Amino acid sequence: MIRTLILAAAALALAAPSQAAPRKAKRAPPPEPPAAAAPAAPAKPAPPTAADWRTPDPANVLVIDTNKGRVLVEMIPQVAPNHVTRVRDLAHDGFYNRLTFFRVVDGFMDQTGDPENTGSGGSLKPDLAAEFTFRRGPEAGMVVAADQTVAEIGFIKSLPVMSQSSMLAPMTTDGKVSAWALYCPGVAAMARGTEADSANSQFFLMRDGYPSLEKRYTAWGRVIVGQDVVRAIKIGEPVAEPQDRMDRVRVMADIPEAERPKVRVIDPASAWFKAEIAWVRHSKGADFTACDIEIPAEVTP
Predict the structure, then answer these.
(1) Most buried among 17, 77, 157, 248, by the most CB within 10 A?
(2) pLDDT at position 180, please?
(3) What is the rounded distance in angstroms from the CA atom of residue 201 to the CA atom of residue 193?
(4) How far apart are CA 180 and CA 148, in angstroms?
């Protein structure tokens, strides 16, 4: 019976006159959502204000008077405490006075600090253990300029540095992460022999950036005034006579206050510096490096 009803229904359906399917109303395509406005490009910062500057500790400024002019190097104990102590002690003793720049490579660095002015000598103090990297915690005062998820690039005072992400710090036994200096123009570092722990008195000042030195040599500071002097030193491997020289090297704190150069440096934690970082990063795009960021300084005699 059921089969018969089904067949009958099918027959009626075939016999019924066909009806056209109702036409669907035509509609215009929906409007596309408005494109998101591109973020405004950061503007070049206005000149810094008084609040954007800092005064470096005179105990951590090396004053190098050369026959080509004066160079001021800010020493950074947070990065290489033992090397800073060595340079400071040798300067206290007058060890560096009248030593020459015996190896100077254009596009690379100026080397000095050898009493023999050949690259083979040193002080009577013991050699130093390497400080190629350091442990970075909040007390280091690093200002982050770029966060690359697994690493952070920034500045400790005037020195450009890179470190592991600070997000890893809670997972380490000391609550810190590994960090190291970036070899940008002006960075001051210790020369050494083939052994890692062989630095003694010789040091070099970077004429230009040289990333291959990172984590292989101990950086202990950076030129804040006188990079033009660094680049004016006579070139040679070895330098032909007469070699340019350091007439006098002193720690600023050892100079009578009335005779000290008055220097101030941009504070990397300042509003101006943050705006400068944003502008430089936008200008450089994917080619940005920490060496693209300059840290202004002003000095009066």
Answers:
(1) 157
(2) 98
(3) 12
(4) 15
Has residue 251 got a pLDDT over 80? yes
Whole-prediction pTM: 0.86
Across the chain, what does the average pLDDT equal?
90
Does the structural domain 50-300 have CATH classification 2.40.100.10?
yes
CA distance 196 to 213: 13
**Residue-level pLDDT at 35:** 63
Structure tokens at 134: 């350091």
Extract the tokens encoding 238: 């070895």
CA distance 136 to 156: 10
* Paired tokens of 236: 């040679």
Residue 254 has pLDDT above 90, yes or no: yes
Q: Which three-class secondary structure string do you get for 26-78?
A: CCCCCCCCCCCCCCCCCCCCCCCCHHHEECCCHHHEEEEEECCEEEEEEECCC
Cα dihedral: 149, 222, 186, 180 (round 10): -30
**HSE toward the beta carbon, residue 236, CA cutoff 13 A:** 14
